[in-house]
diphosphomevalonate decarboxylase (Heyndrickxia coagulans), 326 residues
Amino acid sequence: MEATARAHTNIALIKYWGKRDEKLFLPMNSSLSITLDRFYTTTKVAFDSALKADVFFLNGKPAIDAETTKISRFMDKIRAFAGEKRYAYIESQNEVPIAAGLASSASGMAALAAAAVKALGIEVDGRTLSILARQGSGSACRSIYGGFVEWQKGEKADGSDSHAVPLLSEDDWDLSILSCLVESKQKKVSSREGMKRTVSTSPFYKAWLETVETDLAAAKSAIAARDFTMLGRVLEANALKMHATTISANPPFLYWQSATLDVMQEVALLRERGIEAYFTIDAGPNVKVLCERKDEETVYHALSAIPSVREVLVCHPGPGIQYGPF
Ligand code: PMV
């Protein structure tokens, strides 16, 4: 009645931005991501009939109440799926740099779903696991698979066709993803709140929806053809378009800080020098820069030299769900 699973975090190239169903975590649009090798969560789940509530340890310490509540709510969904009544001991270890503003919810919820289902001895396929993980955090559904992954938004009201599908494995196209960590003092608007506000108030949100599926199709063609220029152009434009919906929301909000712009400008300079690099930004100030492996060192040095960048972490495509012991 105990199992351990590991999931890696992912970075969206075509963004998931906006929910059509808040409870089931159903997205307005399909999205596409790369699972990263460097950042992951390892979670052990043990069900125990003596427990009166779930007990959650994060990085070796009892988690704060808000975290435990969030985890326990997700466990309720897993219990409902499995027809299980017992509570569980949950121990998570996050290999995501502290305060790096890198989302650990994707790897966290994916690892928890996989470990809990395994602990209950239930055999599930990737699609079912992806549907479960999605209900912990939308982007978690993509972390079930390694490499390049598409989350198909689905059409059904019950969410049974809203799940990830693998496009290319982590060994099929070895790109470099450089994660630039910048100083951040500002309290951020959560992705949940950010999505809600832009969907209901941004006049640009309609344009986002009208064009995102075309971006996705272009990204998929580029991936199939290993066409880095085509992929880079569409992923950068898609990220900027997502952020345009936040700037135009009411009240408006902006995830960027001045250091975010420093990185964006350096990427433009690299391209002027003939080095192909493209950026993407999620619901925070950090920037992820993509390049081909042959340019990794040059891009790393250029980004590391930016005074407002604290650290540059080099990642590559990583694996899907793995089961322990580790
Ligand atoms: O699933 P969440 O709540 O972590 O939302 C993810 C939102 C973005 O990171 C901005 C985009 C994405 O597709 O991951």
Remarks:
- The pocket of PMV is lined by residues 12, 15-16, 31, 103, 105-106, 137-139, 191-192, 282-283 (CB under 6 Å).
- The mean pLDDT is 96.
- The domain at 2-171 is CATH 3.30.230.10 (Ribosomal Protein S5; domain 2).
